[in-house]
Structure prediction request, 519 residues.
Amino acid sequence: MRLGMVIDRKRCIGCYSCQISCKAAHALPPDVFFGRVLVSETGTYPTVTKQILPVLCNHCKEAACVKVCPTGATQKREDGIVYVNSEECVGCRYCIVACPYQMRTYNSDGNKEYWPGQGLTELERVGREILYPLEPNTVIKCNFCMEKLDEGLRKGLKIGIDREATPTCVNACPVKARTFGDLDDPNSNVSKLIKERKGYPLHSELGTEPSVYYLD
Amino acid sequence: MQANMKPFEWMVKPTPQKEWIERRGILLWLAFFFIELGAGAFFVGTIFKSIEAMLVGWLVCGVIGGGIHILYLGHPFRFWRMVSRPGSSWISRGLIFVSLFLIFGLIQMIMVQAGGASPVVMVLADLFAFLTIVYGGFAMNFVNGIALWNTALLPIIYGVSGIWGGAGLALGIALASGEVSTLGPSLEEWIRLLLVAYAFLLAVYLVSVRYTNPTGRLSVQSIIFGRFKALMWLVVVLLGLALPMTIVVISFNTGIENMPAGALYLSIFCELLGDLTLRYLILKGGLYSPLIPSSAYSPSSAF
Prediction:
């Protein structure tokens, strides 16, 4: 099994639901995003095109971050999910530098509040201490909501089909621009979409073999 | 993900590497410099049988360089974990090289002082000193997302600059300890050769990266003609290369023992300053390619 995601850029309306739902689900501190929606323009007048590109960790098959990690804190599971074991992370940031997609963040201040000088609100405190504790001075990143997927699998749910076994950003998308599933299964939704609509990953020339594909 | 960046920039424009040069990243720049400089001085010290150069090199590498590197880490007390992945991580390999260099280097110095130097220990100490000098270059060379770093020339340049800087430091120690008449001429020959090799490699490196891809071209442009041009031309080229070269040419004619000590100290200082500045520019000039395929953006509009 190799879990992956397909993002249909024709469907995406740039509403930021994925970005905000991820931030809320993981109680992320200010300035930290596991996924983002990038909006820009390319070309020159009069042939200007608006571009919307939702991005997140690509969970690469040949992940540079896994190779460079000196402690083994960044690991790859059998299902292809790349995650950081913060207890082993030494905070050298080699993985951040090595990621060509710039999808990793150094969590330098675990107590950074949304209202500076006023301390953490009760909601922030619950989020950071109970809901999704993040260890300060380590590197953090998207892990395809692996805790949620594991819990869903334990309940006998189907990954990418049942909402409780699907990443938050996929569930939050109001236009179903995101599809999640097994890239190794030729009959899965993601494999069919990639084949039928010629899905492509970002920076394929770097040989990282990302597990996030885009459709135009 | 870089917090202060406008969301669109990173999608369509090359974006600079920051983690290893901004804020606490400054520490890593200094750590690489002192680790390689110290190992270089030790390496040169063993060849010229200068126990003072070996000792100073060992201390610069282990205490200053190693200390700064550990300070840079988010969890310094976990640094011992960094030896666990030598199969794939250059940082892991680097820590092993530095540790073995410090161990064999210390044994070698103790044996030299006791009058029973062992060639086996010396070879091992020098081998790990050399690996310590080049590992930073390999660690950066492995990052294939940054065209400025992803070249096989980088470890070679770092290797030459580490030994060159080490030779300069050893010459400075020889000057201070009054051994310039015995060690100076041979050290000066090394410095002369390494200086020419360094200048040549630097030119080849910048020209070769210029032709890798549009992002590599932008990196080189920013160093030579862009926002870093003052540092490049004034500090790296003028102070770091031209001035030492002038002093080397003068000392070649007059003999190093007849050169004023002040001029030699100035030359060594400028050489080290130039090397440190070049390392800064290589870290600072590293750019990631934009996420949208390169055909969708115009490199000329990136800066």
